[in-house]
Amino acid sequence: MTFLYAAYAATWIIHITYLSTLVRRYKRLQREIEELQK
Amino acid sequence: MKRAFPIFAVLTALLLSYALYEALVAAPTEKTMGDVQRIFYYHVPSAWTAFLLFLINFVASVVYLIRRSHTADIVAVVTAEVGVVFCTVVLVTGPLWARPVWGIWWTWDVRLTSTLVLWLIYVSYLMLRRFSTSSQTPLLAAALAVFGALDVPLVYFSIWIFRSQHPQPVIGGGGSIDPRMLHILLLNWVAFLCFAALICWSRYRLERLRREVEETQALESLLEPRSLR
Amino acid sequence: MSLAAITRATLAKDLRLEWRSKDAINSMLFFALLVVVVFSFSFDPNAEESRQIAGGLVWVAFLFAAVVALNQTWARELRNQVLDAFRVAPAPANSLFLAKALGNFVFVCVLEALMTPLFVVFYKLRALGPAWQLIPVAVLGTWALVVNGTFFAAMSIRTRRREIMLPLLLFPISIPAILAMVNATTAILTGELSAWFWFVLLATYDVVFTIACLLLFETVLHAE
After folding, report:
1. Strand runs labelled E in chain B
2. Chains sharing 3 or more CB pairs under 8 A with chain B
3. Are the beta carbons of A29 and B96 separated by less than 8 Å?
4. Which of A6, A28, C34, C99 is most enclosed, with most CB atoms within 10 A?
5. What is the number of domains present in chain B?
6. Chain B residue with minimal CA distance to C205?
7. Is ipTM over 0.85?
8. What is the CATH number of the domain that holds B129?
């Protein structure tokens, strides 16, 4: 039964990890934009 | 357009929650495998979504090869990345399902193995994109995507031959499916498709922004006055 | 000049250059010998078991040797700006590709011919099935590796980690071919199963990817 929960948890962990890399990349871009606007 | 995104996001979240509830609670328990079978409701939609994304990548790559369209290239990158994410989910949930049911983590199952090869091909695609120093990276990547697409039927054929000579257990079960289960499966698939669309949309906007910033940076460095040393 | 004539001329030049310097062939030979010896230290099966695993071992060894050969495919061209010359010459890009692929094919076949007796000796191999069938397996299998390998080597030229990029791109795409080569060889050695379907797969793979490479090489060549 733990396998069931592990599978569902793993799915969301993978998705959340990817989304957090997107957020990180976006933040870095925002910083670069600020640099350019100076 | 901007307003649509949060609304769509909330709707998707609701849909996913509902689909999760249906899968974990409302769906009938499978006779032979028990509750573990419910992994099916996440494993199969993720696979179908990944395949759809890779198909879109293939089409975008062909469009790029013919027309050199920037949009096609961005679509290709986006679908490749998100496709790999969903493919990873398939490869993780597959063995987690196989282990309690068949006692083994892996088997030369046609679908699972083909998914692994597809994953490998697209990871190599992403690595090409990352490590290429050519200004024509999109072109090279598009060529690789075409090769990958040509490879897929061959992969299927090769594993089919292998299995006919070395019989192996089939993960994911063949045969007919209870209509109630089918209903919940499709519900989860629609939910994940909406989720994938959201992620792709975000990644698309991120990529467009990234390219704009890069271009601006390149222009800036060209226009900078050179200081005398 | 026709495609065939230019291909033949380029191929002859490559083979002649290689014959005179014997750069690549010497290093590949020694590498192949090392691989065979290391494998024999790692696995010491009796004759029965060795027939089961030899197919896989042999092709893994050939695969490594092929990668070594493929990595240096375009090195000479890059050093001497030959690629730029080819881009502006009226010669069809495919003639360059075919010449390179055929040259690699010859190199890897020579390697295989030299490594095979070593394997037979170290693993006490004797084919229980029709041994002559190993030749078409070797020919079709080697071509499958070499045709895609030459193409991906050209794609890897403009990447940061050139030497590792080639196997990274080549191996996933080659999986059906590798599966076919290994299983066909095992089928022939053990004599238990028919290698027919594997032949069909290999032949199909070769045809599909040779055409794909020929169609797309011009595009890749012009990618700066």
Report:
1. none
2. A, C
3. no
4. C99
5. 1
6. B154
7. yes
8. 1.20.120
